[in-house]
Amino acid sequence: MIKRLPKVIAEIANSHQGDYNRALETAIKFYNAGADIVKFQVYTANDLVSINHPRWEHFKKQAFSSSQWDFIFDELEKLNIPYAIDVFGNESFEFIFD
Known about the structure:
The chain is an alpha/beta fold. The chain has one domain (9-96). It has five helices and three strands; from the N terminus they run βαβαααβα. α1 packs parallel to α4 (66-78). The termini are far apart.
């Protein structure tokens, strides 16, 4: 029998409620609690819904700018915390990989 060692991925999702400092703090807490990797959902409101959609403003408030993502990822890298991202669309792909 082969012993499997699963990896625990802590999904941050929208638990930050649009506060990038909270997103970073949550990631650090999850990692310190034993998660192997922290994962973020990277999107813009336009990646998810049209501007006429009733929830566009909600998603706009939840999304981070490219500089906010840079800050989060730079801090995680300084702390040697592994992270993964789900990129939801063209807009977010462009500013993550710019």
